[in-house]
Amino acid sequence: MEIGTLNQRITILENRVVTDEIGNHTAVWDEAFSCWARATLKSSVENTEAGVTKETQKLEFLIRQSRNWMPS
């Protein structure tokens, strides 16, 4: 892997549910970790439905493995 191609900083978020003091459950996104990556556009599709144009892009991220954030 060419380390110089990892030129985009990305943040991986983790979704979890927290409970407040009166018992309400709320979904929150917390930062799991941040790292350098190479982002590659795999496909891009544009659809128009009911007068609304929506673009969907599929990306691929290449990151280096690290013992600091890899699951045990």
Description:
The protein has 72 residues and is mainly β. It has one domain. 0% of the residues lie in helices and 68% in strands. It has no helices and three strands. It has a three-stranded antiparallel beta sheet with strand order 1-2-3, with no helix packed on it. β2 and β3 form a beta hairpin. The relative contact order is 0.28. The model has no long low-confidence stretch (mean pLDDT 90).
Précis, in short:
This protein is mainly beta. The chain has strands at 8-19, 25-49, 52-63. The chain has one domain (3-63).
Short descriptors:
72 residues; mainly beta; three-stranded antiparallel sheet; flat
Could you tell me the radius of gyration in angstroms?
A: 18 Å
The overall strand count is: 3
Binned, the helix content reads under 10%
Average pLDDT taken over every residue? 90
| Biggest sheet strand line-up | 1-2-3
Biggest sheet features? 3 strands, antiparallel
What percent of residues are in strands? over 45%
Q: Uncertain runs with pLDDT below 50, 5 residues or more?
A: none
Instruction: Give helix and strand order, one letter per element, not per position.
Output: EEE
The shape, in one word, is flat
Give the total of domains. Answer: 1
Q: What gap, in angstroms, lies between the N and C termini?
A: 24 Å
Helical segment count: 0
Structural class assignment: mainly beta
InterPro entries: Phage_SPP1_head-tail_adaptor (IPR008767), SSP1_head-tail_sf (IPR038666)
